[in-house]
Write a structure and sequence with these properties.
The protein is built from 11 helices and 16 strands. It has helices spanning 4-31, 38-71, 84-90, 109-120, 125-135, 140-150, 161-179, 184-187, 257-279, 308-324, 338-346, and strands at 197-198, 204-210, 229-234, 239-247, 301-302, 332-337, 359-360, 363-366, 369-374, 384-390, 394-398, 403-407, 411-412, 431-432, 438-451, 457-463.
Length: 472
């Protein structure tokens, strides 16, 4: 039977999901500068009614939880470490109740445990399920996901396999929660930062690339003609992937730190690749493989110096092409390194006060705009990069999930630039995971982006504002 706390948590999750959908509906209408369509308005109103019902249910369940806590009998400390503790709570007529606190695992650990069970079982879901039950009895979602994987059926069956797919979808989000907030892309749409424009994969998007003109016309004179130019853009499927190879000794359950290492190994390379390629001016598009960076093809603006006067000059130069293209400055976002943000935060005016009090190395605001910081913004020996981007003018296609595969029998080319190719039959020297007692864990994330218009981005390069602070 589901515990009261679990029921409350489920209701809270349901409420959050419905509220998020309402926000999506309203933001879509606002971004497109229109009122909600009838279907959207009906869905919005229906969700509002459902949330009201959930709120009433939550009040009832919380009252029940409070009553249970007041009427519960604490476990006798004298028997806390004996077998009597287990028998106490199993007595049919016992009034004792044991309450467990909210799960406080760091984001990503639950996903790592799922991957470790599957890896330790050598890909056998039945054995992985038993391992999950034995090692993580207080983490039922790990076992539930593995249990769902055992059943054979289609996910379109409304009453059997389809419900089994839902825990897996929810569980994968545990890993994305760890990964996404660390990426530049993941910070858009959070903490007051405008969101990127979300679009589906493989959908043709029409765009107007030039505007028409109107003319004054005298009495009896012919009216001039005008024209508009249009194009179509499609964001295809592109993916970021990595394979982490770990020894079986590292994955032994006796070492808790191995869980975090599995999680970090999967996430670190994806974080770096996404951040680098999102902002690196040299990153050009590779058809059907990877997108161009948002700065690719944009003419760089040279930084003018290191002191606060140069910062003001550079900022004006950064905004000039942005404003000339009629981009709304209120929707702008600045991207810079933590070192650059720190340097700005340390600058003082003539009175010894902070020149930019709204900024720190963790971000904040600069020139009235939100700042995203990243460690992948350039080499500070030759100067870094500061980017100004119109968030609503960047298309983003992102499935929001991470696919995980584990193998103990695979053979891999142990290289970060592999040359073997299945489509051409090219081979190379391989290392057997089985022979070396190793396990390969592969993570993939499907993501793509593109500028809606070329004027969406301007950027400074050769930024050495940190040189103005000798302490750095």
């Amino acid at each position: 039977m589901k515990r009261t706390a679990d029921q409350i948590k489920d209701l809270e999750n349901t409420r959050a999901a419905k509220a998020a959908r309402m926000t999506t509906l309203s933001e879509k209408a606002m971004e497109e500068g229109r009122s909600m369509e009838q279907a959207e308005a009906d869905e919005f109103d229906m969700l509002a009614d459902e949330i009201e019902t959930v709120d009433k249910d939550l009040v009832r369940w919380r009252r029940l939880e409070k009553l249970q806590a007041e009427n519960s009998t604490p476990v006798n400390p004298a028997i806390i470490n004996t077998s009597e503790k287990g028998s106490l709570v199993r007595q049919p007529n016992s009034t004792g109740t044991i309450f467990t606190g909210k799960d406080t695992l760091p984001p990503g650990i639950e996903f790592a445990r799922y991957a470790m069970c599957l890896a330790a079982a050598r890909g056998n879901p039945v054995q992985a399920l038993e391992m999950a039950k034995a090692h993580y009895p207080d983490q039922p979602r790990v076992a539930n996901v593995l249990k769902a994987a055992v059943a054979g059926a289609t996910t379109t069956d409304a009453t059997w396999a389809s419900p089994l797919a839902l825990p897996d979808t929810q569980f994968i989000g545990d890993f994305v929660e760890f990964l996404r907030p660390q990426t530049i892309i993941g910070k858009f749409g959070t903490n007051g930062i405008p969101s990127l424009r979300r679009v589906p994969f493989n959908i043709s998007i029409p765009a107007q690339t030039s505007g028409g003109a109107a003319y004054w016309v005298g009495q009896g004179a012919p009216k001039p003609l005008t024209k508009f130019d249009f194009s179509r853009t499609t964001l295809g499927f592109t993916k970021v992937a990595n394979i982490a190879v770990l020894t079986e000794e590292m994955l032994r359950f006796s070492n808790p730190s191995a869980e975090g290492m599995v999680r970090d190994a999967l996430a670190a390379a994806i974080i770096e690749r996404i951040d680098l390629d999102f902002v690196d001016p040299a990153k050009a598009e590779v058809a059907n493989v990877s997108p161009a960076s948002i700065t690719n093809g944009v003419v760089a603006i040279d930084s003018s110096g290191t002191d606060s006067g140069s910062v003001a000059t550079d900022t004006a130069a950064l905004f000039a092409p942005f404003l000339a293209a009629n981009n709304a400055p209120t929707n702008g976002v600045l991207i810079m390194s933590a070192v650059t943000a720190l340097a700005l935060s340390l600058m003082k005016n003539a009175l010894g006060q902070p020149e930019y009090p709204g900024l720190s190395m963790r971000g904040g605001t600069f020139s009235g705009l939100p700042v995203i910081v990243s460690e992948y913004m350039g080499d500070f020996t030759s100067g870094g990069v500061v980017i100004l981007v119109n968030a609503s003018d960047i298309w983003l296609a992102d499935d929001g999930g991470v696919r995980i595969d584990v193998s103990r029998e695979a053979s891999l080319q142990m290289d970060d630039s592999p040359t073997n190719n299945a489509s051409t039959g090219t081979g190379t020297s391989l290392v057997s995971m089985f022979q070396t007692n190793s396990i390969a864990i592969r993570a993939e994330r499907f993501i793509n982006w593109k500028k809606r218009r070329a004027s969406a981005v301007s950027y400074l390069h050769g930024v050495l504002w940190s040189a103005a602070n000798e302490s750095l």
